[in-house]
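Lab notebook: predicted structure, single chain.

Context: the supervisor wants predicted structures on file for every construct in the current expression panel, including those that have not yet been purified. This is the next one on the list. No modifications to the sequence; it matches the entry in the shared construct table.
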Amino acid sequence: MSTTASVRREALTEVFARASVCERCPELAATRHSVVFGAGNADADLMFVGEAPGANEDQQGLPFVGAAGKLLEKLLGEIGLSRSDVFIANVLKCRPPGNRDPLPAEIENCQEYLLEQVALVAPRVICSLGNFSTKLLRRDPAGITRVHGQAEVLTLGRSAVRLYPIFHPAAALYTPRMLETLREDFARLPELLELPAPEQPPAPAPADRGAGEPLDDAAPSQAPAAVDPAPPAAPRTVAADTPSTGRFALPAETPASASSDQLGLF
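Prediction complete. Output recorded below exactly as produced.
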């Protein structure tokens, strides 16, 4: 990615400012306490994508701050990583009332923000957590039970990424025997992060991009590539950003409705 870390963080702030006042889903806009945009290292090699904020996340404005988040942090620690090393987001930025499942229209309305986050953070690996994020990012109805632990290179919008589906940490809270499966899938993350980053698709010519066109297409621009074999996996396509030490923080001019306390990015 040719843009600098500071430019990318500035762009992320702009995306958050738009998301923070979004009313595309009237029910979610009317019932939310806060927009849970995402949190973490804006230059992370590893990004997690969950389903939607829960009650704790809605109150604090941060993703994965409840029991599932504590388990996620524990699993990261077991492979030598911490929360500050990764970026965490959700398919939906607003809590569905009663923690119901996201509706198809809500996923469609919100995916633009997620695709922009992917393009700007430019992770080497994205872990989709559970069914909703896995089905959205793969553009395939296969459930997480079938595809977990199988890495593949695909293109999301204008970004090529290595997607690695795993069970949502909440699954291990409800079904303790799932914890070992989660640990096994997490254990492969270090070697996936060592693989050469996927080769990025060529940038479109200026004539191919209309005025006001969003950062990413509304849907992946190609079907998923074949699944990587069991570890070690050879890259299917071969260059995303190398990591840097920058962290995402809001500038002083950000509106009060998008305060740093609510956003919670470090």
